[in-house]
Design goal:
CATH topology: Rossmann fold
Bound molecules: zinc ion
Amino acid sequence: MRLILLGPVGSGKGTQAGLISARFGLPHISTGEIFRTNIKNNTELGKIAKSYIDNGELVPEELTNKLVADRLAQDDCKNGFILDGYPRNLSQAKFLETITDVDIALMIDLSEEKIIARLSSRRMCSKCSQPTSLDWMVDGKCEKCGGEVYIRDDDKPEVIKVRLQKQAVSQELIEFFKQKGVFNKIDAADDVESTYALVKNVLDNGAKNND
Ligand SMILES: [Zn+2]
């Protein structure tokens, strides 16, 4: 199964990708992970990518495309893959089309209101550096070590709104996959396993509800 996961930041897409990966035995591929691996292994493409990242510049699309093509050509992708965070736009989607077929493009959606509620309840522990949440904390402190907690700048509601706008899944990308007959969408549920049940239903039945 060649699966593309789409969805806004905070929808729990990464968590679902991890579950699908473990339960279907497919590699979970994200561009962030591809960059890190290539840089760590000091590959030719990794060296070029690093020079952009070190200068605080975006990695050019052509290079990102090459890295993705290179990753999908590896042995562990023979029986399929989960591509998370790529393609981001129509030109990447058109590139991807030249290197592989796609069975399902699944969007895991969540309303902006719920994403903000979810992300803004997140806290970081200043002592053990682990993430926690208002729901887990004990007496206003980290439930693991009792440390003081703080809010990451990224998790402040006004910053979350900007991130959501910047990283929204584009309508033209959705239309592209609809036209190919592989698009499907679910709304993330309140907990991970209920969301996974919806995801699994789509994966087991294919992209039949292509609306
Ligand atoms: Zn802690």
